[in-house]
């Protein structure tokens, strides 16, 4: 085959729709066997083949042709003197989902510089890759090349540079480039607006939008509106969100599914579920994101039955709707449904991810389902996944709440990188298990490492002080929250302090703290004060606290029972009887006690005198046997054993 006969091949490779990747690979094999790839032919056959392979398939789904193109490019005896094949490969690499492939953009650019001159198409692809890789230094060097080679006036290059600066540097630098540029198009405005929203400064994004509308040089499109509607969602500004939605409808902006999904999300975050539902129902071709957003919306409002209905109506599901529904169950304290949903997920052969595992661990924590939690831990180990901060923190929390503090400590020590949330989970777990001294040592270690405690961390250390009766230390921590760490005290912090002071007998100080709180005390605060009064026999203050509790929840039978018991303990029988009469008069009934037990990974609930369980006969037979054994053991027990020293947990 003589060089001129290659012209038809070049024509085929130069078309907008070249052959498939498979045909191109066959063509390459044929050219190799014919000895044409090593030819010094003036026709840029190899370069065209590289370009065709790089463009043949979406590299996000099938990187094989791209890898073949890169290998071909590297094997050429004489590197191409044109940027085109390099640009094709850079474009494909910048789109890859595999970070390892994206990193290959950087050495490829160096190869280009050795054999050819970059053109105006080179830099957008390269800067996009730098932004994805967070390669700030390399990207800045590329910007230097842009200036030295004279591409600073090209709108495509300027837009790519703005995107890079918005992601890797600062919005101030991106804005400076925008304001100083004489070439702006719609992408320029969208890049800046999107950058502001991603950085969590939506007001600046909206200011740019109104400036864009007033300028009139370009017309906002669906990408613009996705940015500003997302900004209104961040601000939780329903009125602004409605106004922007109205702009979309009145100005003929293309209502893509992606835009409508964002509008739905905005209404949900701004509290207008009905409008979100209306938008959802108006989408003709709903995507998985559409369905998942609606599930999240119903779950956010606690409407889990509606969320489940939407889930069941989905034509297809990936892991995201499963996670959304499971998260809703966990947030609504319906842990059993979350575990059942995971069972359904396994039957549907859907691969769980880290979010699934976190939801499962949270459900186990709610239910005290240690056996199931251990299974999740084993599943994580079996996948040979290194313990991420998120998974590790939730494992520590699960083991702590399910009663195995020793295992929680072991997991904590195995986590390679710990953040403030991890330390907080460990501190709270130790505090709840009564290991106050160790919890405080962990808090001190956390501070030594330079980690910033948050409000939840202080709940942990205050709870530790409360369990151990460390009044002075608790007061110091309570003060440090504001004086050193500039944190706002929440209701839970006040309830911890009232409990700490009250248990120690400082009832006047506890009452003063309640009376000087910056917010109205809730039932937990008054409850802590009431229990302290009952413990120390302060009937007058106890009555005051009890009356406040009744005001907050007149239908709660618990407070009436506790008040009657307090009177009975103080030999005030008439008052105790009066409370019971009041309960009958108000129609308040004592709520029966409920217990849970986990057996073979299944959590069973039992209510006092309940006989509705399917295995009730076997349960009562077993209960009778246990009762006999307890009675037998009670007759033989050595009471001196009750004075045994409690176990200690040692900190390294």
TrEMBL record:
A Pfam cross-reference name: E_motif
PROSITE patterns referenced in this protein's UniProt entry, alphabetically: PPR (PS51375)
SUPFAM superfamilies for this protein: TPR-like
Mapped PPR repeat ranges: 185-219, 287-321, 419-453
Keyword Transit peptide: yes
Keyword terms: Repeat, Transit peptide
MF GO annotations: RNA binding
Stated name of the protein: Pentatricopeptide repeat-containing protein
Species this protein is from: Brachypodium distachyon (Purple false brome)
Gene: LOC100833099
């Amino acid at each position: 085959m003589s060089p001129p006969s290659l012209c038809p091949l070049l024509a085929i490779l130069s078309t907008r729709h070249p052959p498939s990747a498979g045909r191109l690979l066959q063509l390459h094999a044929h050219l190799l066997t014919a000895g044409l790839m090593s030819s010094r032919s003036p026709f840029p056959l190899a370069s065209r083949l590289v370009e065709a392979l790089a463009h043949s398939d979406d590299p996000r789904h099938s990187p094989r042709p791209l890898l073949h193109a890169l290998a071909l490019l590297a094997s050429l005896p004489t590197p191409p003197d044109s940027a085109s094949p390099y640009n094709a490969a850079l474009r494909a690499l910048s789109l890859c989902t595999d970070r390892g492939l994206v990193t290959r953009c950087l050495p490829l650019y160096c190869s280009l510089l050795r054999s050819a001159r970059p053109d105006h198409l080179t830099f957008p692809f390269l800067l996009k890759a730098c932004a994805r890789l967070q390669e700030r230094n390399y990207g800045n060097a590329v910007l230097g090349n842009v200036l030295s080679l004279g591409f600073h006036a090209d709108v495509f290059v300027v837009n790519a540079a703005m995107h890079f600066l918005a992601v890797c540097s600062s919005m101030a630098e991106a804005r400076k480039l925008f304001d100083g540029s004489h070439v702006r198009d719609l992408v320029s405005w969208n890049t800046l607006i999107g950058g502001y929203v991603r950085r969590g400064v939506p007001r600046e994004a909206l200011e740019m939008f109104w400036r864009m509308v007033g300028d009139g040089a370009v017309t906002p499109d669906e990408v613009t509106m996705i940015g500003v509607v997302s900004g209104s969602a961040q601000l939780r500004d329903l009125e602004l969100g409605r106004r922007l939605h109205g702009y979309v409808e009145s100005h003929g902006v293309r209502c893509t599914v992606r835009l409508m999904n964002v509008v739905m999300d905005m209404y949900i975050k701004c509290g207008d579920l009905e409008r979100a539902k209306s938008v959802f129902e108006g989408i003709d071709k709903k995507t998985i994101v559409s369905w998942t957003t609606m599930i999240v919306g119903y779950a956010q409002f606690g409407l889990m039955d509606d969320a489940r209905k939407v889930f069941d109506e989905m034509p297809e599901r990936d892991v995201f709707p499963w996670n959304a529904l499971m998260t809703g169950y966990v947030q609504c304290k319906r842990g059993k449904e979350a575990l059942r949903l995971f069972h359904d997920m396994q039957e549907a052969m859907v691969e769980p991810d880290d979010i699934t595992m976190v939801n499962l661990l949270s459900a186990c924590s709610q239910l005290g389902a240690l056996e199931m939690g251990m299974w999740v831990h084993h599943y994580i180990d079996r996948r040979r996944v290194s313990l991420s901060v998120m998974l590790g923190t939730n494992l520590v929390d699960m083991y702590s709440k399910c009663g195995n503090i020793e295992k929680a400590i072991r997991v904590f020590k195995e986590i390679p990188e710990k953040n403030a949330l991890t330390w907080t989970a460990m501190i709270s777990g130790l505090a709840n298990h009564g290991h106050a001294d160790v919890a405080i040592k962990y808090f001190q270690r956390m501070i030594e490492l330079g980690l910033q405690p948050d409000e939840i961390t202080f709940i942990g250390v205050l709870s530790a002080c409360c369990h151990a009766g460390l009044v002075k230390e608790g007061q110091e921590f309570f003060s440090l929250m504001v004086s050193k760490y500039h944190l706002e005290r929440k209701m839970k912090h006040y309830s911890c302090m009232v409990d700490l002071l009250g248990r120690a007998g400082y009832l006047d100080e506890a009452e003063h703290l309640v009376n000087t709180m910056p917010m109205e005390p809730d039932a937990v605060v008054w409850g802590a004060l009431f229990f302290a009064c009952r413990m120390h026999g302060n009937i007058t203050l106890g009555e005051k606290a009890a009356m406040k509790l009744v005001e907050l929840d007149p239908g709660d039978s618990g407070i009436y029972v506790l008040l009657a018991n307090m009177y009975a303990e103080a030999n005030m029988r008439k008052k105790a009887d009066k409370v019971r009469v009041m309960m009958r008069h108000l129609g308040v009934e004592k709520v029966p006690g409920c217990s849970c037990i986990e057996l073979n990974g299944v959590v069973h609930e039992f209510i006092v005198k309940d006989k509705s369980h399917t295995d009730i006969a076997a349960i009562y037979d077993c209960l009778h046997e246990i009762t006999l054994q307890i009675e037998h053991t009670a007759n033989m027990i050595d009471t001196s054993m009750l004075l045994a020293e409690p176990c200690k947990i040692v900190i390294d």
